Each structure stands twice: as structure tokens, then as C-alpha cells.
Amino acid sequence: MKMHQPTRPNKAFPGKSQLGSYSDSTLEMDYNIGRSMDVIRAVAPDTTIAVPPVPKTIQAH
């Protein structure tokens, strides 16, 4: 997952969004979260998955 270089997408993602490197990195992050959710669903298919929102105290301004 990207943390310190959010504008340098993996080599599979540059140009995918057609909106620049930040958007390409966002697509990469979304793809990786989707893969993680797929694994969780495969391991626990009958479980409700709740993803809590980020508290306002740690959101970027």
C-alpha cells in the first residue's frame, strides 16, 4: 500500500486514470483494498464486513 509516495503508482497503474499520477495511485490503492476484501470474503464468506470511517481528528486538511 502507498503511504509515503502517493504520486508514484506501481508500474501497472501509470496512465490508467488519465487524470495524473495521484489519481493513478488512488486507483492502485482501491485495487489493493479490493484484493484484501476478496481474501476476507473468501476466508469468512458469511461474515458481515464493516469498514469504519477515518475519524475527523486524523483526516487530512
Structure description:
The chain is mostly helical and 61 residues long. The protein has one domain. It is built from one helix and no strands. The longest helix is centred in the middle third of the chain and has 23 residues. The radius of gyration is 14 Å and the shape is flat. The model has no long low-confidence stretch (mean pLDDT 81).
State the total count of DSSP E strands.
Answer: 0
End-to-end CA span: 21 Å
* Oligomeric state: single chain
Poorly predicted spans:
none
Mind telling me the C-alpha Rg?
Answer: 14 Å
Q: What is the share of helical residues?
A: 25-40%
* SS-based class: mainly alpha
Number of helices: 1
Bin the strand percentage.
under 5%
Shape estimate: flat
Largest sheet: none
Number of domains: 1
Element-by-element helix/strand order: H
* Average pLDDT level: 81
Region (Disordered): 1-22
InterPro entries: Alkaline_phosphatase_core_sf
What is the topological layout?
Blueprint: H1 21-43
Keywords:
flat; single chain; Alkaline_phosphatase_core_sf; mainly alpha
